[in-house]
Each structure stands twice: as C-alpha cells, then as structure tokens.
Hints:
This protein is an alpha+beta fold. The chain has 4 helices and 7 strands. Helix content is 25%, strand content 24%.
Amino acid sequence: MTGTPDNALGIHPDPQLLDLARQAFARAYAxxxxxxxxxxxxxxxxxxxxxxxxxNASYGLGRCAEQSxxxxxxxxxxxxxxDILVYSEATPPASPCGACRQVLxxxxxxxxxxxxxxxxxxxxxxxxxxxxxGFRLEQRDDGxxxxxx
Length: 149
C-alpha cells in the first residue's frame, strides 16, 4: 500500500456508502486543518453508520471520521462491520491513519476498506492489509486477556 493509489480489491465503491460518506464529509468539523473526511460503514446486520473528523483546539482530543463511525456503530450495540468507505478530497485518497487502522482492526480485521476522492480515485484493501500486524486482546480460559497479533 505504498506509492500511487491502488485499488487492491478491484472493486467500485458501494453507491450507498459513497453517498453517505460524502454527506458526512460536508458535516466534518475541521476549523483548524480544513481537511474534511467523511466515513460510512456497514455493520454485519446491514445497518449503516456515518462518521466525520472532529477537531479540537487541544489537537490530541480530535477524532477521525473512521473512529466516529465505529463509535456510532458500537453505541448502537453493533460489534462488527463488513465495509467502510472513507471519502476525502485528497489525492491520492486519504487512507485511515495508524490509530484508525488499529480501531478498525479491533472490530473487523477482514472488513473491506475503500478510500475514494472527488476524482473517483480508489485505494482499497482489507483492514488487515492496512494494518498487517494488528493487535487484539483475547480472553484466556482463566479470564485474563492476552495479546494476539
């Protein structure tokens, strides 16, 4: 996933997710960077959740669009998703940052990720492609958690 945009999955963006991600993009709160990002994900039961990046004067407190979408999904009681579309006006299309990659991996390492910009450029892959050595905690038989790649 280096260099020029790579549509590794060879897929076209889901029209519903693209439309909702674009709508979310327009509502992003980015007064400092002016870099808007919108995301839409589909949970395993077919519900769609949107997210936007939300900046804060204390920069570290901001949230990315992907994290906002995952948080909306989790708030609704869902725990996994099949697809996420990230929309930006960056060229190449902005892909999830490192923190977002880990958040996505927590819920759905095999979900499809499609990043799109206004020119129709596409970067795609599975969450595990974007974060090949993701970290998850698993429950042991004795109730303690252990780290697993």
